[in-house]
Every structure is written in C-alpha cells, then in structure tokens.
Design goal:
With 142 residues, the protein is an alpha+beta fold. It has one domain. It is built from four helices and eight strands. The strands form two sheets. A four-stranded mixed beta sheet has the order 1-7-8-5. Strands 4-3-2-6 form a four-stranded antiparallel beta sheet, with no helix packed on it. It is globular and about 40 Å long.
C-alpha cells in the first residue's frame, strides 16, 4: 500500500511540473517506486536526463528576484516568467552551469514539504538529497 501511495503522489507531483526544456523527462516515479523503504536517497541526475549543468538550487515562493540575484551572484532573468515572486504554490528547481540558469522546473508544494531544504543554497551536481515518506506525505531533505 505504501508503494502505491508513493507512486500516486509522485505522479501527481511531476504531472504538474513544467520545464523550459521539453526534452528533459522527469523519472522520479521510477526512483520512488523502486524504493521499499520510507526514505529514498537520490541525485538530481536520477530524475532528469540533462547534462548541461554543474549545480542546482531551490527557489522558494515569493522570492524577490532582484534581491536573490545579489545574494547568489546568479542572473535569474530566465525564471522571471515563472511568476515565483507572486506565487505560493510552487518551488523552482533551477539547474545552473557556470552560475547561469540553464533550465528550471516547477515543483508543487502540495505533494512535497520543502521546509527542510536550504533555499538559495547552490548544491553541487553530485549532492545527494533524501525524500522521506511519513504520515504527512513526502518531505525533501538536503
């Protein structure tokens, strides 16, 4: 039953994701469905078929892009169209190469709790994240 709930939640999560790259399929469903435990560790490379990045970051709802650009030293023009400054329903997963965004994805807050993820922290490509399934749903940890 747990695996079925994970599969359904993952499908709902990534059915609502969109990308600036239409050829970058998300396969988080496969990662979660193959896990028999309540904690799944993964890298972004396990989810995306994308080569053109060396780091990634999560951008939270209501982010003021101008202030975030100064803080990060990264141009965020590419994500202006996301409307993240005025939205509370999504996080953005941004892929970076040499401090420039190469791609980004919506991650809905309905499906995963992002409270324990470090916002605006640049993670190296090889960084391992954990997705925990508990009584309240999925929680992403860094």
């Amino acid at each position: 039953m747990k695996n079925q709930l994970r599969l359904i939640a993952a499908i709902l999560l990534f059915a609502s994701c969109s990308s600036t790259r239409k050829d970058a399929p998300l396969n988080m469903v496969d990662v979660l469905a193959s896990s028999a435990s309540d904690t799944t560790q993964f890298k972004i490379d396990d989810l995306l078929n994308v080569d053109d990045y060396d780091s990634f970051l999560f951008v939270p709802p209501y982010t003021v892009l101008e202030g975030a650009e100064r803080h990060l030293g990264v141009k965020l023009e590419l994500i202006e169209e996301s409307g993240i400054e005025f939205r509370d329903d999504v996080y953005l997963l941004c892929l970076l190469k040499e401090n420039k965004i190469t791609d980004w994805y919506f991650l809905t807050r309905d499906s995963i709790n992002f409270e324990d993820v470090s916002n605006f922290r640049k993670y190296e490509r090889k960084h391992v994240l954990s997705l925990i399934y508990n009584s309240t749903g999925f929680e992403l940890l860094d």
